[in-house]
Amino acid sequence: MTTLFNKTTKSATPYKSQDATTLLRADHKLVSGLFEDYEKASTKAMKKKLVRKICMELSVHAQVEEEIFYPAVKQALKDNELVPEATVEHATLKSLIAQVDGFEPDGEMLDAKIKVLQEYVKHHVKEEQDEMFPKAKATKLDMLELGDMMTARKLELIADRS
Question: Domain residues for 137?
């Protein structure tokens, strides 16, 4: 059991260490569910709330990957392909996020942008889970330590955005 400091509650929280890829898969599943909720949303208020949540989750996830996971994987794999491609995909995701975050739901254009963002995320997730994660797990990286670092950073980022 690891203890992490949560800036939001200003307290130490007992936390069961998780493998880095398990944490990232959980994020992927969460965001996928949020996209499904958006598709079912019937009011502008619901859509606006879901867009904010999707954008926050994707932004935090991407930042944690770029700061902690990708550099570790790149070094462990001596990779010149998977991580750079994922980083470029993140840049495109950030561009799409900037186009929808904080905007009022205005009908078909926002819906179209969310749909494209959803499809792009789905493609990115598939590549990570099918290619990068298995290769990363086959290295000597300490996935639990990486997971703890990522969890701590994620808590910081979420607290900063609250």
Answer: 2-161
pTM of the entire predicted model: 0.88
First-to-last alpha carbon distance for the chain, in angstroms, is: 26
**In this predicted model, what pLDDT tens digit does every residue of 75-97 receive, in sequence order?**
999 989 999 999 999 999 999 99
Rounded CA separation 89/160 (Å): 24
The answer for residues whose C-beta is within 8 angstroms of residue 44's C-beta and 6 or more apart is: 104, 105
Number of domains present in the structure of the chain: 1
Contact, 61 vs 34, CB < 8 A? no
- Residue 109 is predicted with a pLDDT of 87
Task: Give the type of residue at 19.
Answer: D
